[in-house]
Amino acid sequence: MTVIVGNPRKRNKYRNKPTGGFASKKEAARYAELLLLQSAGEIRNLRTQVRYEIIPKQDGERAAHYVADFVYDTPIGGWDVQMTVVEDAKGFRTADYVLKRKLMLHVHCIRIQEV
Question: Where are the domains of the chain?
Answer without folding.
Answer: 25-114
